[in-house]
Amino acid sequence: MEILAFGVQADERPLLEAAFAGHFGLRCVDVFLTPDTTAIAHGHEVVSTSVNADLGPATLRTLAAGGTRMIAQRSTGFNNIDLDVAEQLGLTVFRVSSYSPYSVAEFAWSLAMAVNRNLVRAATRTRDFDFRLQGLMGRDLHGRTAGVIGTGRIGAAFAAIARGFGMRLLGWDVHENPDCLALGMEYVDREHLLRESDLVSLHVPLLPTTAHLLDAAALRLMKDDALLVNSSRGGLIDTEALVGELRKGRFSGVGLDVYEAESGLFFLDKSLEGVDDDVLARLMTFPHVIVTSHQAYYTEDAVGQIIATTLQNVRDWEAGRRTPNVIVPRAGEA
């Protein structure tokens, strides 16, 4: 059986090929799975997809008509998949339920420190031999308050680093994490967290209940000089509302590794094309905003774990095993 893997990055390909060698045939393509590229999958029982694949009804119907029976998503998030349609079509869907939380937590802190200490602006200046300090002043984070929205494995790893900086910890989640409580975190309501925090970092999944969790009203609650970091999902923030607050001169720095309209942009080279996303273009104009291309997970450790789990998911599907990674079971399974 040959698996067709969509959206494979150049760095990822040798790791995928090495992991699948001796187990299954593997064909890697760098294009993302969309309604326009679905025909490539014709005849493949199993396809593997990335987080930016478009697995809406049109894509899923074409996959099913072409003989696909199993989708192995190479990510934890699955908000890009229409699960109801997949179930109706008899498609089994697996995901990677967890991988190194440190990859994302450490990158979130990289964004926080970069915007707090104006590292991108400083590096750009010194390349031009401009060694002035004007406009580069940051703040000590020691003794200030970190608000962690979502305190699962990644949020807890982020909080542990914050504790290492000597920060006060506030948390918001539907469940309290004992590991975070052991760090001294105080769980509060979301509004309290936003009002009190000097740094807010998002670590919750994108669900109907969390879409635009930081809308215009929530953003207005934050301190004028707060730092905001999002390394989870772009749709957690109302980006137009964020741009509106930035235009008022609010926030000391914003670090975004995700963007709510990133599909069709992120992971692709658009340098020779015009990008007609006015909101993203406006966001890029603020000197204290950093936007990266959904790379927080992108470490050898995390990608290796994602690939190993994806291989195991295919083996489990072939053997008929039901695991916690199944998000759409086989037809007939409860």
Automatic annotation (TrEMBL):
UniProt entry keywords in alphabetical sequence: NAD, Oxidoreductase
Enzyme class at the top of the EC tree: oxidoreductase
A Pfam cross-reference name: 2-Hacid_dh
Coiled coil ranges: none
GO MF annotations in UniProt: D-lactate dehydrogenase (NAD+) activity
EC number: 1.1.1.28
Domain of life: Bacteria
Protein name as it appears in the record: 2-hydroxyacid dehydrogenase
Keyword Lipid metabolism: no
Residues of the D-isomer specific 2-hydroxyacid dehydrogenase NAD-binding domain: 110-296
Species per Swiss-Prot/TrEMBL record: Streptomyces evansiae
PANTHER family per record: 2-HYDROXYACID DEHYDROGENASE HOMOLOG 1-RELATED
Residues in D-isomer specific 2-hydroxyacid dehydrogenase catalytic domain copies: 8-327
UniProt xrefs under InterPro entries: D-isomer_2_OHA_DH_cat_dom (IPR006139), D-isomer_DH_CS (IPR029753), D-isomer_DH_CS1 (IPR029752), D-isomer_DH_NAD-bd (IPR006140), D-LDH-like (IPR058205), NAD(P)-bd_dom_sf (IPR036291)
Similarity annotation: Belongs to the D-isomer specific 2-hydroxyacid dehydrogenase family.
